[in-house]
Amino acid sequence: MSAQSMPSLVSNNHPTAVTEIEVSIDSFIAKLKRKQISGSYIIALETLQLLKRFISAVRWSNVNELIAQIRELGNRLEKANPTAFGCGNVIKRILAVLRDEIEEDMRETMAGQGNNDTNNNTNNNNGLTPAEPLISSMFNLLQKPEQNSQDFYESRAKTKTDFRQVVIQAIKDLIDEIKNIDDGIQQIAVDLIHDHEILLTPTPESKTVLKFLIRARERANRTFTVLVTEGFPNNTQNAHDFAKKLAEHDIETIIIPDSAVFALMSRVGKVIIGTKTVFINGGSIVSSAGVSSVCECAREFKTPVFAVAGLYKLSPLYPFNVEKFVEFGGSQHILPRMDPRNRLDTINKITDYVPPENIDIYITNIGGFAPSFIYRIAWDNYKQIDVHLDGKQK
Amino acid sequence: MAPKKGSVGNSHSRGDRDMDVEDRFQAVVLTDSFETRFMPLSADKPRCLLPLANVPLIEYTLEFLATAGVNEVYLTCSAHANQIDEYIENSKWNLPWSPFKISTILSPEARSVGDVMRDIDNRGIITGDFILVSGDVITNMDISKMMEFHKKMHAQDKDHIATMCLSEATEYYKTRTFEPAAFILDKSTSRCIYYQDLPLLSSQEKGTVQIDPELLEGVDEFSIRNDLIDCRIDICTPHVPPIFQDNFDYQSLRTDFVRGVISSDILGKNIYACITGDYATRVESWQSYDTISQDYIGRWCYPMVLDNNMQYDQTYSYESRHIYKENNVVLAQSCKIGKCTAIGSGTKIGEGTRIENSIIGRNCQISEGIVIKDSFIWDNSIIGDNSNIQHSIVASNARLGQNVTLNDGCIIGFDVIIDDGMNIPKGTKISAKPIKDLSASGFDLDDSDEITDEENTEPFSSLVGENGVGYLYDSDTSDDEEDASAGIHKVSNCLTHQIEELYLSDASISSITKRKKKKRTMSSNSMYTDREDIESEEDEEEDFEAEGLATVERALENNHDIDTALLELNTLRMSMNVTYHEVRTVTVMALVRRVYHFISTQTLGPKDAVHKVFNHWGDLFKRRAFEESEFIDLMNIIMDVVVDTKFEKPDLILFGAFTSLYNNDILEEDVIYKWWDNVSDNSKYDTVKNLIAKWVEWLRTADEESSEEESSGEE
């Protein structure tokens, strides 16, 4: 509650800069808590902007400290709103890039130190993607890298590389990637949607789905019908807006009641869902309740379910306790206000979890993947060590 | 009426000036409601710091203001002002990243909302449109919609001064009946045409609404609504505080201010109502505390929910069926946590305990085999084995022994200790310290009022047991006339509001409000002291004389400044509805008495006394008479009074009074001539007229001389 109880993120070398960044972090956290910032796209971008300012403000004496500070920030943001995964995701991505860079730096230094022995090796590897160096025997393989890198993190106070620049560049790249996410996805759209097909989407609030469909119509000039579920009570307005926009682009659009999904499923060619977060097991959180049952229906009818998601929505977390990741909304939309003593208990989920077996393919900006392959993409982009930001680093 | 017009004009100019700083969005939070409904707990802690769902009430209001994008918040505190000030000082709102600048305004003198508003006006902090909100509001309302409505209406109607926000309630929602009121709204513009408090459902009175037909002129269609929850969120223009300043008798926001403004054709201002379907209510009684807590836990106020963890040290997480738990909660394996429950960190719950629909604070020790239903256990309470708590509140640091039963609607105060095996009857309120009779202490709950009264300890051991600490708080000890409902009242101003008791509890509240009003007049500033007597109409005039005399004499005695005296008189005049003639009479009488007092005690000679009094206080007449005829009236009054007072030298006194007034430019020459020409020939005045005759003669010659010199042909 008071200033003392709050962790101080940054060392006190520059009080003015420190307070400034503290102010913006805390007001960002307050906004997250109040749910004034919502939507995974916006959250991801805002987090990156904040991180950029944070990186410019912090002071550190070695890289290890920098990483610790970024982790601390990420932890606070994640705690502020545990269902806004965007914050954690982007910060973990940046951490992964940073760690890669450090490793490379270390390798170069080590190469420099052991100049004589490994001269050939370094020359070969220079400028290429970092391959595992110096694995020449089983002994080395077992002995290797963590120990070294750990030493490096701790022992090295000075590095050649300017890590501030590295991180800022990484942030810029990631912002670019997020902003251009739709292009990648839309490229695939054309191939997936056929003429005279009937599509169903239960997530009308997804901008990605909207653009995906419009692109298919405009680029490929396909004619198809889109069924939109009404999403009562939380999503009805979105569904109407979505349908209007599609209709403006000359796509035949029908809004159907949620109860009619099963009846219509036999005629549907593909189900397209937008996701909020994709977990490492290939399951995903989607932003309207009821999508889970739609996907269940689709499975019953063997209708393919396509989930569209930007790479930044991929989270390295595993959904052990789904209830924790699902958001519960207000009750006021379901029932009129009544006295607590004689009213029904109402529970209004506003997001839903779709298990991986009910999704056939993920369409991301780097291509389409089966849910079972998602873990591999996750480990390309994240480091195991950064999955959980709370607690101490090993 | 001139003073009123003057100040309204003044406020206009103020409004214009502030167009420049419009980007500042201000809010005034009234932390004190000037009620005693939360006694005995509010004796120790102000209402706005009582926890609702383990968070002080004020936080909900501030959170709402933060979401609304307010830049400056002023908290007005009167009772327990230092506690609130200290709380705010240490809260997150005082940190550099707080979304707004917060400052507390301490006005311990204030006795009503009206006083607070006058204080705000005196401080001149309001620069633009501002939100006026009470410190116990819980809402998820989108203020931007209301602001839009306010701006739109402001553009259409330049006399628009305030927008009230009202929340629509369904017929199933009983909270709306706590302070029933009818709003008569213009259907097309939703302008509030009339406002009336309604009698509660149960009371014998019939709910009638009387509207002056004039108010309905030019209204095509109107609706009369009593389904609106008045959540006391108003957007006001800067014109509002000065209105309170001008109408010194305005006390409450709704009954006095809203009604006064919309039914007054002098002010010519309009108030609009913005009706929202969002959740918005006030915690204004134990019943609403109960209802709102359950609503809040049941997520009816989303996105404002407990697991947002708005406090820095909160760690609530949500589980389905509306169960919220903080970190570090220790639950025994066999305890059962039912639906709609929140448990704070550090709390331990023992084997076999069942909890349902309840909110448990932090660091509570809840032992084995306890049943807690529909109840509120605040921080650091200890509850012994096998107790049974039904629909009650156990405040912080209270200790309950083993096998204690709290029946429906009990309120156990701070630090109360209840011995083993006690059975507390329905609706009992217990506090650790005896609280003196309400009517004596009024709102001012200083420590001095809580004198340990040995006689008050009589129900003490029978209720809380031999080793217990606690005194029965009986709100009915004060002698109120509505004794008929007193018996019911015991049960009712507490949590209970099961359907069968609803009607009864309503009745009790009506008794509370009535008593409250009465008390307010008693404890407010001296100028209102006798308002009740005034209400009996037959002796109104006499009363005014006595009151007015007392007022002026007090002013003379204590040497008030003239503005204050004027305001007091003005208030009195308006509240009793008398003419200026009476005011003048009273003033003159008081002044002359003063003179007489000086002379009779031989402090001053007659001449000096008259000059001293009339020179200094003559200004009192300046704003009591405006036209010639009124001045003549004044002179007649002075003459009458002087004759009646039977001075030794009445002519000297009268002459002195007139010359003083003349020298101070209160009486003009023309007026004096006219008066002299028409002066009554009654013989009783003959003695006093001697000197005046000479003076008038002298004046005339002097006048003629001067006019001759200037050769301007005046007469």
UniProtKB/TrEMBL annotation, chain A:
GO MF annotation list: guanyl-nucleotide exchange factor activity; translation initiation factor activity
Subcellular location: Cytoplasm, Cytosol
Alphabetical list of Pfam families matching this protein: IF-2B
Alphabetized InterPro entries for the sequence: eIF2B_beta_subunit, IF-2B-related, IF_2B-like_C, NagB/RpiA_transferase-like
Keyword Cytoplasm assigned: yes
Gene Ontology cellular component list: cytosol; eukaryotic translation initiation factor 2B complex
Broad class of where this protein is predominantly found: cytoplasm
Record keywords, A-Z: Cytoplasm, Initiation factor, Protein biosynthesis
Keyword Signal among UniProt keywords: no
Quaternary structure and partners: Component of the translation initiation factor 2B (eIF2B) complex which is a heterodecamer of two sets of five different subunits: alpha, beta, gamma, delta and epsilon. Subunits alpha, beta and delta comprise a regulatory subcomplex and subunits epsilon and gamma comprise a catalytic subcomplex. Within the complex, the hexameric regulatory complex resides at the center, with the two heterodimeric catalytic subcomplexes bound on opposite sides.
Family: Belongs to the eIF-2B alpha/beta/delta subunits family.
Name of the protein described by the UniProt record: Translation initiation factor eIF2B subunit beta
Source species of the chain: Maudiozyma exigua (Yeast)
Source lineage: Eukaryota, Fungi, Dikarya, Ascomycota, Saccharomycotina
Annotated gene: GCD7
From TrEMBL, chain B:
Biased composition regions of type Acidic residues, renumbered to the chain: 532-545
UniProt-listed Gene3D superfamilies: 1.25.40.180, Hexapeptide repeat proteins, Spore Coat Polysaccharide Biosynthesis Protein SpsA, Chain A
Pfam families: LbH_EIF2B, NTP_transferase, W2
Subcellular locations according to the entry: Cytoplasm, Cytosol
Annotated coiled-coil segments of the chain: none
Region (Disordered): 520-545
Primary location class: cytoplasm
Keywords noted in UniProt: Cytoplasm, Initiation factor, Protein biosynthesis
GO molecular function: guanyl-nucleotide exchange factor activity; translation initiation factor activity; translation initiation factor binding
Ranges that cross the membrane: none
InterPro entries for the chain: ARM-type_fold, eIF-2B_epsilon_N, eIF2B_epsilon, LbH_EIF2B3/5, NTP_transferase_dom, Nucleotide-diphossugar_trans, W2_domain, W2_eIF2B_epsilon
GO CC aspect terms: cytosol; eukaryotic translation initiation factor 2B complex
Subunit structure, as described in the record: Component of the translation initiation factor 2B (eIF2B) complex which is a heterodecamer of two sets of five different subunits: alpha, beta, gamma, delta and epsilon. Subunits alpha, beta and delta comprise a regulatory subcomplex and subunits epsilon and gamma comprise a catalytic subcomplex. Within the complex, the hexameric regulatory complex resides at the center, with the two heterodimeric catalytic subcomplexes bound on opposite sides.
Protein name, entry field: Translation initiation factor eIF2B subunit epsilon
